[in-house]
Write a structure and sequence with these properties.
Length: 96
């Protein structure tokens, strides 16, 4: 997972590239693979949730998420995704 976070005028713009196959139920049947896709993405600064998403099997492979929140340089943003099998990945980045 790659995370970029930049602050300008009190607004932090975040880009998250989640590396995941995201195989939906229909695609899994066609390819004879088990369905597995990102079911949730949560971004936090400290204990505050600044972004939350519930996913489905209709997302692309290696999805890119973009969002904004009010923040400042030096904040530590932590992004975590969870997939259908329960696997999680977390990445922490300081805001530039």
């Amino acid at each position: 997972m790659k995370v970029k976070a930049k602050e300008k005028d009190g607004i932090v713009k975040v880009k998250v590239l989640a590396k995941h196959q995201n195989i939906g139920p229909e695609e899994g049947e066609k390819k004879k693979k088990e369905a597995n896709f990102i079911t949730s993405v949560v971004a936090k600064v400290g204990d505050k949730i600044v972004y939350e998403l519930s996913g489905s099997g209709f997302m692309s492979k290696n999805p890119l998420y973009k969002f904004k929140y009010k923040g400042k340089k030096g904040d530590k943003i932590s992004v975590t995704w969870t997939d259908l099998k329960g696997e999680t990945k977390t990445k922490e980045k300081a805001v530039k």
